[in-house]
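user: can you give me the structure for this one chain? tokens are fine.
assistant: on it. calling the predictor now.
[tool input]
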Amino acid sequence: MKSIKNIRNILIFAAFSIFLSSCGNEWLDVYPSNRIETGKSIANIDDARSAIYGVYYQMQRSSYYGGRMMWFGDVRGDDMRHHGNSSTRSGIWYRYEHNEGNVPANLWSQPYTVIRLANNILAVIDNIHVSATQEAERDYIKGEALMARALAHFDICRIFGFPYTKDNGASLGACIIRSPIEADVKIRRSTVAQCYNELIIPDLKAAIPLLTDNRTASRGRFNRWAAKLLLSRVYLYMDDNANALREAEECISGAQAAGYALYTNANYLTQWRTKFSTESLFEIVNSTSSNPGNDGIANWMGANNSNAYHEIGLTQSFYEILNADPDDVRMTVLTKGVNFPNLTFDAFILKYANGTTNLDPNVTIFRLSEAYLNAAEAAAKLANENDKAALYLNAIVNRANPAKNVTNATVITADMVIEERRKELFGEGHRSFDLLRNNMPIVRVGNDHNMLGDFARIIDRNNNISIMPIPIMEIEANNEIVRNP
């Protein structure tokens, strides 16, 4: 496959010491920019440390969690829309006009870059010599590489494969890659079920005990509670609700013991403007000198900066759903009426406003609120767990507006939780994935979506356009790749 063939065996750190130093931790200030050629060049703990920084650098890119991965799930949903008629950037995804020829190759290749670099580490990490005092750090780096590999395979599956719950994972997902490979190796796609059961879940289970549980030590790096949250999400996507509930609860209790806490009603907006907030289990670190550039998530959704794209905003119908309760604290992370003359309606998100410009905010990937919502959804789908569903859902409902509550006297349904996910997690990349995995159609009707063709107005998971086509360059480079329907 061309993307894997073209993944150079080099970890590139462009001004990377500046990127790392923005985290504010001592370990981030020590190691200069450098190049490490292959996994075989990772000979000691310093090399391994530099190599794992390279994994995070690749995740920072605008083609991955620095940009596209954060808006992809929303702009293809029902609550957000692309503004303008651009056929580039987010417009093609919003209008579902993608095909094998116009889908960017890096939608497929960037997660594989992360996988390749993680595999370079995992191939040698157990064999590098370390002192007794360095053993814990070696284990931590191994855990980080395992989690990165799991996350990248998971993302490929949910972008290019049908939801696990559609066919019990029988559709094709990612090409599983567990080790460094030669440039000309051609690998077949595995099913979504194989990816989940043979790599993603085992990697996360192996990573969890190796990752630190310390909040301060893991700023800008994966930790145990982020891995627990991801594992709960994976189980939720599989409709394995008992395991999803267990992992979410362990994430909540462990994270709280480590010093994390839900935002309060009083500090909700302030925390969104704070790097390494009380809820942020893992975030991508940006600085004014090292960031995804103009294609970073804040520039897509930026509201008050005249230089921002202003390409992705809320639909009027979803804004009105939120504004039905003007006292809902989540209204504070919206801005409306910024007076962009080319827009008939403008409501933009302020969740990415903790930097000095639209280019350098940190990007929270795993947030404690999701763990509560995962627990609530899983419990609502299980028999005899209504008390837990009410407990975890109420934490989010009551935080949004202290005058509102749900109690265990109320029958908590999955639909109730999914609606609350919609209100809490907008702009964080979840909405279309949440709908499709729950066999709910994406419905985009009315004036909110007046630029759409009829085919893009109501989409369910049986519609082939609900998943992305494999880029044509991948198909041409690897005759083992099976096209998506």
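assistant: here you go. Confidence is low (pLDDT under 50) at residues 1-39. The chain has one domain: 2-288+363-477.
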